[in-house]
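Appendix B, Record 12. Input sequence as logged:
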Amino acid sequence: NPDMRGMVETLNQLKKTPESKVEKCLTEYSSRIKNKSVIVIISDFLTELDEIESGLNRLENSDVILVNTLDIEEIDPSIEGDKILQDPESDSELRTYVSRKTRSNYKQQLEEHMQKIEEKAEKYGAEYILASTQEDVFESFLKVWGALNE
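Logged structural output:
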């Protein structure tokens, strides 16, 4: 499909940017939308829920698909012990000790956060898709394409 190939090519050309604010981006973008549109938002959504909800509220007259992209290490971290964590978006570092209990608590909090994002999406009539960065880009977009055609 030529439309899908164009989307994939555009996404492949995008560069990683510093930490972004979902609400700010969606507020700015929503002010430019004049007609009902299909909007695909690709993010890790590791931000406050009220920021996500505010953004969804601004786009409620459009068809919205949230693609929550996370690395497998974010979903199921394998690190343990004394570690220095580096944020690739801001270059900040944090020295910490990661125990099994810490990992377990983290995974539980992440799962709850993703569930709440999905609930917010449902509240505003948006689709929610979880995509791992390890997935093939084309496979991830087949999920999005399927959501567009439901």
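The longest helix spans residues 100-123.
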